[in-house]
Amino acid sequence: MKDILTLSDAIHLAFSRPEYAPEIKRDEKGVLLSMTTHCNQFVNEVLSFIGFGDLEGKMANDIVDFIKAHPQWSEVSMDKCQALANAGTFIIAGIKAPVHGHVAIICPGKEKSSGRWGQVPSCASVGKENTIGRGINWAFSEMPSFFAYRPTL
Question: What are phi and psi of 86, to 5 degrees?
Fold first, then answer.
């Protein structure tokens, strides 16, 4: 499916959910005790919008492993992501980490300038900070991998 309006609607509907705000717990002195984020649930909801519900219950690391091995997903280079998203292709940016990785959706828009990575695609990210339309450099501390959804008919 390539449909920029469906992609944009799916991202904005999921992004607007208040339950995807980070859950932060601090002690009486304000020291951070824990933080729970919902990037996996956000990405699952966006993809479920188009009928790809195979990510339900998967954490970010599991999502990266799953789409990397799935025949309907193809790894793409970062320099192709913005044009693909602007044409309506669903793209997940993801990175694995020892405890929890992170996943985000590349959203339609314009590339942004990053001091460390050059021109980067815009993304919708739910995590420590929820952002939409910023470059992926705001959502990831290390360069993620990018996966385009290419459904078979």
Answer: -70, -20
CA angle 105, 76, 127 (to 5 degrees): 25
Residue 124 neighbours by CB distance under 10 Å: 26
Q: Which residues of the chain form beta strands (DSSP E)? A: 23-26, 32-36, 73-76, 91-95, 102-106, 112-114, 118-120, 122-125, 131-135, 145-149
β-bridge mates for residue 104, sequence order: 93
Q: What is the DSSP letter of 77?
A: -
- Bridge partners of residue 122, in order along the sequence: 135
Does the pTM exceed 0.85?
A: yes
For the segment 64-99, what is each residue's pLDDT rounded down to a tens digit?
A: 999 999 999 999 999 999 999 999 899 999 999 998
Structural domain boundaries in the chain:
4-149
Q: 4-149 sits in which CATH class?
A: alpha beta
